[in-house]
Amino acid sequence: MAESFDDGALARLLERLKNGDVSAAQAVWDYFFSRLLRQAAIQSRGTPLRITDEEDVVLSVFESFFGGLREGRFDQLKDRHGLWQLLLTMTRRKVIDHRRRERRLRRGGGHVRGASVFD
Question: Of 13, 85, 87, 92, which one is least surrounded by beta carbons within 10 A?
Fold first, then answer.
């Protein structure tokens, strides 16, 4: 089912996800994970990744998405394009949040050198 992901299949899949169906979550994961990972890598260019990397960002996106579905926050999703846009937006925001955390003054304002400076 994940390979075709037509809008009818997506509607059924989202309903299953809302009910906590693990196989539905796996289908969404299988379909979108590598795509989101590439997007997170592109958006993270120039961001220090000592603590969090692209995979952590995508894991956080899925955690937020699945949690939001269970809470009824994404009832407007009707097609795969809307879902893709939502996941992209969530990824973009997670990367921005990571960048902000890394650049806080208590972390040196983005000017802290890693251990590689001693090599």
Answer: 85
- Rounded CA-CA distance 44/35 in Å is 14
94 CB-near residues (< 8 Å, 6+ apart): 40, 57, 60, 61, 64
φ, ψ of residue 114 in degrees (nearest 5): -80, 180
pLDDT in tens, 38-85: 999 888 877 665 556 889 999 999 999 999 988 889 888 878 888 999
On whether the CB atoms of residues 48 and 62 are closer than 8 A, the answer is no
For the stretch 77-106, pLDDT in tens is 878 888 999 999 999 999 988 878 777 755
